[in-house]
Design goal:
5-stranded mixed sheet; 256 residues; alpha/beta; single chain
Length: 256
């Protein structure tokens, strides 16, 4: 059986990322896919980009990876933009929208938020029609097997890990490595099955929680004078959304 680790929403939190990568190594997993939002919210976006480039086989683009490379009036966003090099910006701009593959006979599709947009947010408690829409083919998705819709969706964006079975298909959110918003521990997912195998076989998804040094993450933010520090501290320590960075006004999202 093959195993794939799926990580998402690093948000410049290197202590959390290092703890997750160590857990992945301990389990002997070699293949890692990242579902975006490498940057912003936390203090170490530059290091996060470099580490993800090195350790992940595939990385898709998140909403922060998108708007961080564009002009922005927010002083907070400008601070996060200043942490990145031009080469890192080019890397973020080049990231694909989605990625898909076959595993144990299932077509698995991965993207950051939805098949329609990087900013289209779907929560596990949204109406079933909204959740089922995540399985749709769009002009943004790869569609490697033509008109067939995926059997499994794995996405990020909402910082809320969950698995649901809907009308014979599986919906999975990997949660957030660097900014979880339900349990104050880093989250990621493991997919297990036979990679590239067309015949239906054994398949599983496991959600993993990894404790990390939250105090260190907070101290790193303090040391570099990161703006909006208090909301960041509250999010890391309570796993409750505090309206961090006020991205809503520009990007129709809540900043996750």
């Amino acid at each position: 059986m093959d195993k794939i680790a799926v990580i998402s929403d690093i948000h410049g939190n290197i202590p959390a990322l290092e703890s997750v990568l160590q857990d992945i190594r301990t389990r002997g997993i070699k293949r890692i896919i990242c579902l975006g939002d490498l940057v912003g919210k936390g203090p170490q976006s530059s290091q996060a980009v470099d580490m993800i480039k090195q350790c992940c086989e595939i990385t898709v683009k998140g909403n922060w990876d998108d708007f961080i490379t564009r002009p922005n009036e927010s002083e907070t966003i400008k601070w996060h933009q200043s942490q990145l090099t031009s080469q890192q910006n080019h890397y973020l701009e080049s990231l694909p929208f989605s990625y898909e593959f076959i595993m144990s006979g299932r077509l698995i599709r991965m993207f950051h938020a939805s098949p329609r947009s990087l900013y289209d947010r779907i929560q596990p408690w949204d109406p079933i029609e909204s959740r089922l829409s995540l399985f749709e083919n769009t002009q943004n998705t790869q569609n490697i097997v033509g008109i067939r819709e995926p059997d499994v969706i794995c996405y990020g964006d909402i910082h809320n890990a969950y698995i649901q079975n809907l009308e014979g298909r599986t919906l999975c959110n990997a949660g957030s490595v660097g900014n979880p918003l339900e349990i104050p521990q880093a989250s990621y997912a493991i997919l297990e099955g036979k990679y590239g195998e067309e015949e239906v076989g054994t398949f599983s998804i496991q959600l993993i929680r990894v404790p990390y040094n939250i105090e260190l993450a907070i101290n790193l933010a303090k040391e570099v004078g990161m703006p909006e520090l208090e909301p960041y501290i509250k999010e890391l320590t309570t796993a409750k959304y505090r309206g961090l960075h006020n991205v809503h006004n520009v990007h129709n999202g809540d900043g996750s």
